[in-house]
Amino acid sequence: MSQHITSHEIEELTPRQRIYAIVGASSGNLVEWFDFYIYSFCALYFSAAFFPSGNPTTQLLNTAGIFAAGFLMRPVGGWMFGRIADRYGRKNAMMISVLMMCGGSLMIAVLPTYAQIGTAAPVLLLLARLFQGLSVGGEYGTSATYMSEVAQPGKRGFFASFQYVTLIGGQLLALLVLVVLQQLLSDAELRAWGWRIPFVLGACAALVSLYLRRSLTETTNASERKRKEAGSVATLLRDHRKAFITVLGFTAGGSLIFYTFTTYMQKYLVNTAGMDAKTASGVMTGVLVIYMCLQPVFGALSDRIGRKTSMIWFGALAALATVPIMMALRSVDSPLMAGMLIVCALTIVSLYTSIGGLIKAEMFPVEVRALGVGLSYAVANAIFGGSAEYVALWFKQAGMESNFYWYVSAMCAVAFIVALRMPDPQKSGLLK
Questions:
Q1: What is the per-residue pLDDT across 113-171, written as a single tens digit (0 to 9) for each?
Q2: Contacts with 47 (C-beta within 8 Å, 6 or more apart), sequence order
Q3: What is the pLDDT of residues 24-64, one digit of tens each?
Q4: Cβ atoms 408, 257 nearer than 8 A
Q5: For the whole model, what pTM was predicted?
Q6: Cα 300–306–310 angle (5° rounding)?
Q7: What is the 3-state secondary structure (H, E, C) of 212-238?
Q8: CB 142 within 8 A of CB 85
Q9: From the centroid of its chain, how far is CA 109?
Q10: How many alpha carbons lie under 13 Å from residue 345 in its C-beta half-sphere?
């Protein structure tokens, strides 16, 4: 695709050009999530290099780093990159985002250990993680907005669903790279230097994505970006408060159930269902592959039945099915049955995740679209999605584990009520 195509010609893009734009935008999303997940998967091997158990100060830094990167930086990233995207263009925001992730990964890959530079090592690791948290926080809103704007009208649900295809793909790719390294290297080699390899791969992949994003078509024009309302939080909260609160409402339930049946589920199968850890990993890998393939199917379905209808069905089915599925998983003794139950849950979740970014983009006008999508998602995701595991484990420790199931159901019921009451975003005409 030529980078000389202007935003005024976006309607005239050929299907091939639109597909290239979707690939370019979603490639960065895949890299962002690969780099973010690889940290979690490789922590087992490098934690001792940066956080010696005998030093309480570094242990505290570790805790603070996880908190800051996971919770504080995502809303900051959502705000910062949303503002950049609305004022300086979607393409620029996406390029900065993936470049920042590249820098964070490269920094971790070459970082000296605690034994070499002392407390400076965990401090620098924390800094790299802050960069990554900021980058991931900004990536969702900008890529969701861009993919929604560049997608062909009538097929927006299908095209926009590839945001979650690449999000899940990044997680699976991170898992695959770690499995390959575990086969090729010994445990001692992985702990000594092997854990650095995935971060180098992530940084290289980010450069490829940066190259692809350089030639993307910008979807906004100069007059839209120069408006005084562009990227303004005050304008967003004053003039589009109802849309912002609506997005917060259904994202809270959507994020919570997504994290419950993806990242937390492996721990749930081991700790509650008593499944072997390796078996649980195998089950979840298979489940995530199926879940990834479901996204375009449900995205295309939303083009036929409407985004609002998809969201109503998501809220209703999730509110009704969560408790029975979690109860059944608690006593499941067959890995196949466990996988089928989780796939059932994630099929319902797909009604939301396949169009999550798109339905948010359809609710905000162009001058605050990236900010509205990014900030509302990041805030709800940080409060409800990011805390899912902690809340679940807190209920379990208190001997009231089933209360967590009802909590997830209640939040999905909120999403159902919000979906019922919200105006049909496809009929608003805000996303032309």
A1: 888 998 888 889 888 888 888 888 888 889 888 888 888 888 889 988 998 999 899 98
A2: 62
A3: 888 888 888 888 788 877 877 887 788 777 666 666 667 66
A4: yes
A5: 0.87
A6: 80
A7: HHHCCCCCCCHHHHHCCCCCCHHHHHH
A8: yes
A9: 23
A10: 32
